[in-house]
Amino acid sequence: MPWRDLVCLVTVIVGAVVFLYGSNYYDATFGWSGVSLVVAGLVAEIILGVYGTLRKRGS
């Protein structure tokens, strides 16, 4: 597993944990931070996948 995939996976996991912490303690800041981390991890994984595909195709 490449390190980029691992970083994205850890970001999504941390975001889910932060979201659950925020929802458990009714703290909107932590909740929305967790949601944004999950979305950022997924978007980064998609962008890196598309970039890798386009880079292989261009060579």
Task: Give a concise summary.
The protein is mostly helical and 59 residues long. It has one domain (3-58). It has helices at 3-24, 28-58.
Note down, in words, how this protein is organized.
- This protein is an all-alpha fold.
- It is 90% helix and 0% strand.
- It has one domain (3-58).
- The chain starts with a helix and ends with a helix.
Topology diagram in text:
Blueprint: H1 3-24, H2 28-58
SSE series: HH
Question: How far is the first residue's CA from the last residue's CA?
Answer: 23 Å
Uncertain segments are none
* Beta-strand share of residues: under 5%
Output mean pLDDT: 93
Number of helices: 2
The helix content is over 70%
Kindly give the count of domains: 1
Largest beta-sheet characterization: none
Structural class: mainly alpha
Number of strands: 0
Shape: elongated
The radius of gyration computed from the alpha-carbon positions, rounded to a whole number of angstroms, is 14 Å
Question: Which terms would index this structure?
Answer:
elongated, mainly alpha, 90% helix, 2 helices, 59 residues
